[in-house]
Specification:
alpha/beta, 30% strand, 210 residues, two-stranded antiparallel sheet, 7-stranded mixed β-sheet, Rossmann fold
Length: 210
C-alpha cells in the first residue's frame, strides 16, 4: 500500500523541528491547568496499558507516567522518537502511523491523541478513529486535544525556527464527536476553552469511551 503523501509531509516536517520543538514546549504543561486536568482525569480512568499516539518528544507520555499510568509513545517521526528516547530513557517509544498502528486488537485500556490528529486531512479521520477503536478494548478511553475550527487547512511554511511545508486543520468539536460516535465511541466529557497567550482559536478536549 502506497503511503499517503500527507504522512510523508508530516514526517519530514517533524523530523526537521524535533529538537527545537522539544525545547520550546518542554515546560508548557506547567502553565496549562486545563491540559493537566483532562490528562489527570484520563489517567484515573485508564486502567491498563495506554498509548500516547503522536507522542512527539514524549512530554505527554512522561506526564502520564508521572501520574502512575502504564504508558508508551508512538510517533511517525524517527527524529521525534530519538528525542523522546533521549529525554525519557525509562519509557518506551516506537515509530508508527495513526492510520496503521502495530498493535493487536483490543490491546489498550486507553489512548491519547494530543494535538496529533491536526495534520490529518478530515477525510482520513474516519480511518484514524477506526484504528483507535480497533486497538482499544471495550470500555477503553480515548482523549483527544485539538484546535477548533471548521476543518479548514492552515498551511505552515515556518515553525519552531525552521522552514517546512505542512498543513494543520482546525476541527469542529461537533464533527469530531459525530465521527467518534460512528467509530463506536460514546462521549464521556467535552471541554472547549478560550484561547490563551499566542493561541488563535479555542482549544477542544474530548474524552470518549469505546
Amino acid at each position: 500500500m502506497t503511503e499517503p503523501s500527507f504522512l510523508r509531509e508530516i514526517r519530514t516536517a517533524y523530523d526537521a523541528v524535533a529538537a527545537d520543538y522539544a525545547e520550546l514546549l518542554r515546560d508548557a504543561l506547567a502553565g496549562s491547568p486545563f491540559d493537566r486536568a483532562m490528562l489527570g482525569a484520563f489517567a484515573e480512568l485508564a486502567d491498563g496499558p495506554v498509548a500516547d499516539l503522536g507522542c512527539g518528544p514524549g512530554r505527554i507520555t512522561a506526564h502520564l507516567a508521572s501520574l502512575g499510568t502504564d504508558v508508551f509513545g508512538v510517533d511517525l517521526s524517527p527524529e521525534m522518537i530519538a528525542v523522546a528516547r533521549r529525554l525519557h530513557p525509562g519509557l518506551r517509544f516506537e515509530e508508527g502511523s495513526l492510520l496503521g498502528l502495530d498493535l493487536p486488537d483490543a490491546e489498550l485500556a486507553g489512548a491519547v491523541a494530543w494535538y496529533s490528529i491536526i495534520h490529518t486531512p478530515p477525510e482520513h479521520l474516519p480511518a484514524v478513529f477506526a484504528e483507535f477503536a480497533r486497538v482499544l478494548k471495550p470500555g477503553g478511553h480515548l482523549l483527544l486535544a485539538f484546535q477548533t475550527g471548521e476543518g479548514q487547512p492552515r498551511h505552515l511554511s515556518h515553525a519552531y525556527g525552521h522552514d517546512l511545508s505542512l498543513d494543520a486543520y482546525r476541527l469542529s468539536p461537533g464533527n469530531v464527536v459525530k465521527l467518534l460516535t460512528e467509530a463506536g465511541f460514546a462521549m464521556h466529557a467535552q471541554l472547549v476553552r478560550e484561547p490563551e497567550g499566542p493561541e488563535k482559536t479555542p482549544q477542544a478536549y474530548l474524552l470518549a469511551r469505546h
